[in-house]
Amino acid sequence: MTYPAADRKTTSRPLQPTAADTMLSRIFRPRFHAATIDTLYGAIVAQARLPEFYEEFGVADTVEGRFELILLHLALVIRRLEREPRCAALGRGVIDAFGRDMDHNLREMGVGDLTVPKQMKRVFEAYYGRLRSYQAALAEQDAAALEAVVARNVFDVAPSTDAPARAPAETHPGAAQFARYVRRAAEQLERTDGVQILSGRLAFPAPRAILAGDENRTDRQD
User: Which residues contact 68 (CB under 8 A, 6 or more apart)?
Assistant: First the structure.
């Protein structure tokens, strides 16, 4: 974290850090093993690929549909990490892992070297847009607001212009159930101990349990 410089009444040269200061900063600077970051990002991708989302919730089993579910789960995890002071650097590492994965996927799909940076810019614009929209909807504690975000992003349902008050569940049958999953996932991550997250372990709700009304069941990622 960067702090603003304190006002100074003199023009003396700033003190240079001593060898002891440098050593202490290295000791206490948060460091996370690459394996921890890879494990967390792997859990995000594994959850996003669960067939229940596509076969039972009705998410489109396409490149775009799978991309949206990665964005969703990444946003939920980063939202949790931002609430844990010790996890700020870990969150940045997970986002970097996401970037590397997307870059690799674009190249595997045949996107040329000159086009990849433009596509990556769009990828991160999409991610930060989803992060803001999910954070705002979850903060409102309003089921309709979260359903609207889910319908727009996950199910690609455009907001209604002729009936603004219409519930999102009327525009897509899976929106309400999926919004319950998102809310439950956010709550479950919120209750996850910081030490567990720092060790690379996450637990998401079991999608099929949401459909069955057994919302306490989890799919643990160890």
Answer: 59, 130, 153, 154
